Amino acid sequence: MTEKPTILITGGAQRIGLHCAQRLVEDGYRVIITCRQARPEWQDNPLQGIEVLLADFSSVEGIRRLIDTLIERRVRLRALIHNASIWDNDDQGADALQQMFMVHMQAPYLLNLASDQLFDPVQVGDIIHISDHVAQRGSARHIAYSASKAGLEGLSRSFAARLAPRIKVNTIAPALIMFNEGDTPEYREKALAKSALGIEPGPEVVYQSIRYLMDNPYVTGTCLDLNGGRNLK
């Protein structure tokens, strides 16, 4: 029996990351997700078809521990999706930038450097970085976040050049995808008005973007804007 191709999604325990993981399982992939800690609801409702690896990206040692685990288990990836993300305010100063640098740049950098040991050597693979629309325009209120996501996009272009032609490397830059439960009607109205399409599309559009990049053999070093036309407003 042929082993299923494997996809690793960092930060895949909830919301968009988990939705994409579940959809990829439906597509017949073996899916591994990372998270900092197991979620309580998994005790009663275990994730179906998804393997969970606990990983701490706050230190180089934690990142390398994940890489060592993958190598020891002889994981051979079809795709690596860098979805792990944190959102800290600038009022935390240097700590905020350091924490977001580790998650948004250091972890992808070290994992990508290990691609020769992690990816299937006999087929074309994909690395997909999940960035943010704000990285392309900056943010006066979230300087560290937007800067670290912009750095992630820079990593993506550089690795695309380095790893071609065996591994395609691309970025997805979403804007509003789905609201949080506590978002007020006023906030939702204001957020929807920022885009030309004016909708809350839901996580399926991120999954569709991932599949497009994986299925297209002629796309690398690009950023797929997923913003509903915010650039038009």
From TrEMBL:
Pfam families reported for this sequence: adh_short (PF00106)
GO MF terms held by the record: dihydrofolate reductase activity
Function according to Swiss-Prot or TrEMBL: Catalyzes the reduction of dihydromonapterin to tetrahydromonapterin. Also has lower activity with dihydrofolate.
UniProt EC number: 1.5.1.3, 1.5.1.50
Coiled-coil boundaries: none
Broad class of enzyme this protein falls into: oxidoreductase
Catalytic activity entry: 7,8-dihydromonapterin + NADPH + H(+) = 5,6,7,8-tetrahydromonapterin + NADP(+); (6S)-5,6,7,8-tetrahydrofolate + NADP(+) = 7,8-dihydrofolate + NADPH + H(+)
Alphabetic keyword roster: NADP, One-carbon metabolism, Oxidoreductase
Protein name according to UniProt: Dihydromonapterin reductase
InterPro entries recorded: NAD(P)-bd_dom_sf, Sc_DH/Rdtase_CS, SDR_fam
Domain of life: Bacteria
Record-level GO BP terms: one-carbon metabolic process
Family in the record: Belongs to the short-chain dehydrogenases/reductases (SDR) family. FolM subfamily.
Keyword DNA damage belongs to the record: no
